[in-house]
Amino acid sequence: MKGQKIRLAKAHKQNTRVPVWVIVKTNRKVVSHPRRRHWRRRSLDVK
Fold it and tell me: How many domains are there within the chain?
């Protein structure tokens, strides 16, 4: 159970937007996060 909670927390941390400083530094070439996950649309494969 504890390992599953850790993996869920990791997935939660990874699911953030691209930082503003990255957008500024790349002159808006990088604005989207291709691996961004929405809780209703895509399920996690957490064991």
Answer: 1
Model confidence, pTM: 0.76
Distance CA 35, CA 3 (A): 22
Strand, helix or coil at 12?
helix
Residue 10 is part of which domain span?
A: 1-32
pLDDT tens digits for range 1-47 = 899 999 999 999 999 999 999 999 999 999 999 999 999 999 999 87
39 lies in some domain:
no
